[in-house]
Amino acid sequence: xxxxxxxxxxxxxxxxxxxxxxxxxxxxxxxxxxxxxxxxxxxxxxxxxxxxxxxxxxxxxxxxxxxxxxxxxxxxxxxxxxxxxxxxxxxxxxxxxxxxxxxxxxxxxxxxxxxxxxxxxxxxxxxxxxxxxxxxxxxxxxxxxxxxxxxxxxxxxxxxxxxxxxxxxxxxxxxxxxxxxxxxxxxxxxxxxxxxxxxxxxxxxxxxxxxxxxxxxxxxxxxxxxxxxxxxxxxxxxxxxxxxxxxxxxxxxxxxxxxxxxxxxxxxxxxxxxxxxxxxxxxxxxxxxxxxxxxxxxxxxxxxxxx
Length: 307
Hints:
Radius of gyration: 24 Å
GO biological process, one term: regulation of membrane depolarization
Pfam families: Ion_trans, Ion_trans_N
Organism: Malurus elegans (Red-winged fairywren)
Largest sheet: 2 strands, antiparallel
Keywords: cAMP, cAMP-binding, Ion channel, Ion transport, Ligand-gated ion channel, Membrane, Nucleotide-binding, Potassium, Potassium channel, Potassium transport, Transmembrane, Transmembrane helix, Transport
Domain Ion transport: 38-300
Number of helices: 14
Structural class: mainly alpha
Low-confidence stretches: 153-171, 181-185
């Protein structure tokens, strides 16, 4: 029994009937409106955000990836993602119109296999377990280690975990909970949430773009015409490298310049064009959501005037 379940089912008796239905459905069936699933989703949401921020930095800028904190973070993340993959097979599915909750284990399994299983499976491959076993059992030479470092780009499959946020039922559930907490109307709450989500996505794209600006020259062993070599930053501190890469990416995405100098190499030219396209798209989406937010601030008066 919680605020969300009471709001969805209407009364304590209805919640109790739903609880009995969960018990009769099978062993270890998790209701999507239960407290456990809510807190688990919150933990997975924070863990996904942490992975999406930290992993690109680790892949691009970390010189030594065998430090204990980095290994612990990656192994812990892989463990949680694998556990989430298993729990999804035992969690009830909310039908899109919120009128029915599927609790049959066979139906849950088939629907999950046909929808998000492939994406979740790819994002949950324990790559760090494999690297950790290789590092512990064999002493690899420098060439093999460089190859393993390049293969660590496979960790970008974790970015596919972002698709989990696109589950409509889960997003609607978060919006309703925030609406209950802040006592806002649905139109205003949804508009504010969309604005904050969009701002967060734009900042995350800037972060990814900054890492990509440094990663591509690094994989090419820093050619002479790349921006890293021209700025003499090949052996600079990691903080300086990231700061300059982020400044270059944001300059492209905001279409206010090319950074410290215009791109010369073909790779820099294509990266600049990609950044500009992504930045222009985000800017157009931000204007659209901001317009919807302004219109929703006084939606009741506007609808009254129209009528």
